[in-house]
Every structure is written in structure tokens, then in C-alpha cells.
């Protein structure tokens, strides 16, 4: 059979002509093209345009001028920007561990198999995530009200004076409460699905070795879902830095407590929509994007290195 | 250095362009810039041809005006968008102008905000449409506001806001409190009222830029001085001190309901006796009728409290014009509608529904002054408003970027309402932030 192989195939193949190589590479581009076009249009172009914008300054008097990196120098010395960044950082440090901790506890409880009605429990915890952030904030905003809201009703009914959730000292915590309520279910689902894929043989081995439930959690479950923990943390960091909806909506109820530069995102919004400072707004947005990227990257590196 | 010079040159160029506005109407823009004079017959032709006019305005009486207008000119359709007001309205308008897309044909713009839109050429100069001939129809205050001291006409005055004190007579009677005529009496009344009924407050004030500037205006403070691109901002004069000395105790003793204006809570508070007085512009009655219908008969009108007994000086609060944005699609129809609403039949329609006119003839007519307001228990409230209109203190001006300044009012002065910051310090912070913004925008701002 092998002898019947046509000799032509053995003949030295001529080097593919350059034209052919060209054609091959074009085929690749043909497949890649649609993606690249869309990617460039919706991803690269807006970033490029923002960077372009950040190099100019458009004034009410004097019009549009090229200012180089002036906007960046200004932003790096802008107290309002740093204050807002400090505020979301505080939010991040306090709210994210609480939220992820609760989510993890619920996921472990669901995964333990010792609960009745887990499906119902799971969907109930997850449900707030399905409520649009705007609706959720309006709802909580109403409950926080000391005049016509739930807090006010409780005060009236029991003759007590609860602290005002929308006062300047407490409003950040109140926002944290809303965000926790919204995202515990989402993070729980990430952890839960990661827990579900752990091979059962590990549990059996642990049982043979006489490990208790707590040991199973620390020695098997947590290390196995480290990837999911890192991902959820990164999402939460990004979410915290991009905090906007909640303060923006609550501001209608607490104008004096939530300033127009409350969070970096809200600051860029105010700069561009109240002050017509689109250029400076773009600058602040770019700096904020870079900071978020760096921090998310550090968390990812650290999280993954421990895992290795 | 060179950059600064060219910026200055551009500033001068822009200013001269503005000054020439009336005759050379916006010659710098390339599209729709060469606005030729539009004659009355041109307007008639446009009305016959018909089309759609999109109007962004929250003034409630415009609804009937639009209906009447459509009846009179069946080919014209008025698309009235009225759910936004205040900051949100200006944000939307500025965005549309910036994006050059979705710009309305007619936009309501309050007098305080006109400067900014006129300066940035967001609006059409209505003089070539014949608006300058309407000058004698209007009272001087509103006309000065729409012309910004130039030959251009940036809008047609819709109403004016000479201030008066609206008070809930039922609440005052029930607690046997005399209606205050001076601000000292007002503070006393506030204490008595809140003591008699802890659920009642003399007023709702959660920090409102428009109210505060009007109070300063009446107190004789003149914090803003504007001369072209030269601006001076100073909240440390005697008038400002008079205001902060009176208002600070009201805040400290928690005698003001911390309710933001125009919210659901606010309307509810006006209706159920939580808020006992409202010191605001004479355009308010129409809003009472539509927004606080359940309290009809409870409220009355009294002159604005004075700083010293017998002093009649008042101030303006709000008041707005209908403008035609530079990028409006159908300027002839837009102008025709604005003119109908603010200088023709629409004026009467609006007065009947409680609006306060800016037109001299209507203000002085017996019929107007003798009108009995059913909502105010048959009171001839227009007499008080007209008296106030005649006593508005002069020489007040707003910043050419007042809209931005107002947007950061609660960041600065607002602190005084919720923390230990004092009102005077809040005003200082507001001043500093406004100066900073003005300088960033190319104005020469002094403190």
C-alpha cells in the first residue's frame, strides 16, 4: 500500500510564492476584521477621543486651546479629586470585605447541603441583583427618610430618634448598605458555582482522613475557589471606584450631604454636565481609569501568586 | 505668554462679536448664522406652512397656551416637554447644545441663567425677528435681564418674580401667631410656631441658591459685579452679614424644615401645615393651584418681610424667559410661539391661571389688580405683587456663570445646613469655588 504513494508528493515542494503567503495572511484578517472593526470603534476610539479631549481646554471666554498636559497637572493637584478618591477607597476597604464575607458565608452554607429549601434561599438572596440599581436606590432612599420614610415611621411609632441615615456622617455607610444588599447575591453565585465544581473525591479523601467540616472548608473549599475570590474582589474594586448611581440618586434627598464631587465618577459627571468642563472631566476619568487598572492588577498578581 | 495673549485677543473678539450681536447677529458660525431680518409676513407664511415646535418648559400655564396656539394655527404642532425643571433642565439643554443634537426650538431659561447661554452663543438673538420692538411692552427689570445690557434680545420675558410671603393662614390662626412684617418678627414667629407645634416649621429651607441670592439682594448685598469678562465676587458686605445674622439662628435652633424645594415632600409639607410660609416670586400661585390643590383656601399672601420696619425694598426670585436656541430647527415658528405666549393672547391665558406677567399693560390694569384669587380665599393678591414689583431693589446682577455657581451651592453653603459650618463660612467657600471656576473659564475674577 505504501509503495503506491504517488512520487509527486515526495518531489521537493516549491517554496510557496510570496503572493500565496500574502493571500494566507489576508484570510486571517478577513476573520479578524469584523472583530477588530467593532473593537476599534466601540473600545479604542472612545479612549483615544478622551485622551485627545484631555489635551485641550475649552473656556467660556477664550474658546478651545491646546494645553498639553496642563489638565493632568491640575488634576493631580486637585483636592476635590483626591478627596473623592479617598472616599471611595474608604468605601472599598470597609464595604467590600463585608459584602464578600457575607456572600462567602452564604455560598458555603448553601454548599454544605445541610439546608432545606436551598433553591428558594439562593434565588431570594440573588433577587436584589435583578433589581435595577436606580430602583433599588430609590427604594432604600425612601426607607431612609426621616420625614415620610420608614425611619420616620419607626421614630413615630416607638417614640425614638434613630440616627439619620442621610446625614453627612452616615450617608456613606447608607450607600454601603445599599450596595451590599444589591451585590451579595451576585458574589454568592460566583462563589457557589466555584464550590460546585470541586471534585467529590477530595471530600471523600478528607472524610477518610477524618477531617471535620471546618477543616474541609479551610483545606479544600477555600483554596479551590481562590480564583473566584480574586475575580469577585477585582469586580468589587472596580465597582467601588465607579460608584455613581447610588450617590447620584440619593443626592436628590440629601443635597447637602452628598456633594457634586462625592465620588470620582460623580465628579467627572458634574464637571462635564454642570460646569461644561468636558476636557478636564476626560482627564480625571483617564487618571481614575489608570488608578483602577493598577490596583486591580496588583490584586490579581498577589491573589494568583499565593495560589501558585 | 503668547498663549495668554491670544486667549485675551480671542476674548476681546468674542466680546465685540457679542456687542455687534444685534446688527451682525452671530456672524462667526457657518450654519444658519446669517440671520436676515424676519418680517411679520414671513412669520405669517411660516405659520401657514406649519410644522412642529418642540418646547422645553416647566411653566404649567404653557399647556393651555400651546393648545390655544394649535387651535389658532392648525398646521402647527406644539410638542411641550415639561417634566424637567431647574438644574436638570439646564443640564439637558447644555448637553443638547454641546452635542448639536436634539436641541429644542423653544427653551425656558430663567433670568439668572441667560448670561451663560448668551455668552456661549447657545441662543438666537431675537432682535432680527422684531423682538426689539416689544421693549415698551415689558417692565424694565425683565427686559434688562433678557437684553443683558446689549442690543441683542436673548429671549422674551415670560414672567417676573417680585417677591412676597405666602403664608398658611390656618396654621398662623390655629397657633395664634401674628403674621411677621420684618425678618426679626419672622424669627420670633418661627420660634413660637415650632414651640406650639413641633411638627410645624416657619419655612422649608434645605439650602437653595436662588432663595439665598434673592435674600441677599433684598438685604442690600451686591456680591456679584460684572463688567464684560471682569467679575468681582464678594460675600463679605454689610448686606450679607445682615442676612447670615438673621438666618443662622433659624438653622441653629432647627426652625427650618430640611425639605428640598419642588420635591414630593415639599408639596406635601405645603399642603399639610408642616411648612407655614414660603417667601418666593410672584409666579408661585399657579404652582400652588396645580401642586398643592388640597390646601386651597388655607394660604394667603403678605408683603415680603422687611429688614427694618417700614422699609419697602424687595427683590426678585426666579422669573424666566422663552428663548430660541441657536440650533433650533424652525426659528420662525419658535419665535411666533414665544411671542404668542409672552406678548400676545397667551399672556391673558397665563394670567388667568395664576402666572405673573412681565408686561406693563397687564400689571397696571385694574382688571389684573382686582383679580380675586380663589385659592387665596378671594384675596386680591396681585396688588401685593404689583407693589413688590415697584419696589425691587436695583443694581443687582448675577454671574455670567451663575448656573454653575448654583450647582455647587449645596457643596459649600449647604454644609451650613447639616453640619457645624456657619452660613458666613459657607458663603466664603462658595465665593472661593466660584472665583476658581471663573478664572478657569477665562474670566478675570476678583474677590
UniProtKB/TrEMBL annotation, chain A:
Region described as Disordered: spans on this chain: 1-21
Biased composition (Low complexity): 1-12
GO BP terms, alphabetized: transmembrane transport
Gene Ontology cellular-component annotations: plasma membrane
Annotated localization: Cell membrane
InterPro entries registered for this protein in UniProt: MetI-like, MetI-like_sf, UgpAE/MalFG_permease
Record's bilayer topology term: Multi-pass membrane protein
Domain ABC transmembrane type-1: 81-299
A Pfam family hit: BPD_transp_1
Entry's family note: Belongs to the binding-protein-dependent transport system permease family.
Protein's name in the database: Sugar ABC transporter permease
Organism: Streptomyces spongiae
TrEMBL record, chain B:
Keywords: Signal, Transport
SUPFAM superfamilies for the chain: Periplasmic binding protein-like II
Protein family according to the UniProt entry: Belongs to the bacterial solute-binding protein 1 family.
Protein's name according to its UniProt entry: Sugar ABC transporter substrate-binding protein
GO biological process annotation, one example: transmembrane transport
Signal sequence, start to end: 1-24
Phylogenetic placement of the source organism: Bacteria, Bacillati, Actinomycetota, Actinomycetes, Kitasatosporales
InterPro entries cross-referenced by the UniProt entry: Bact_solute-bd_prot1, SBP, SBP_1_CS
Native source organism of the sequence: Streptomyces spongiae
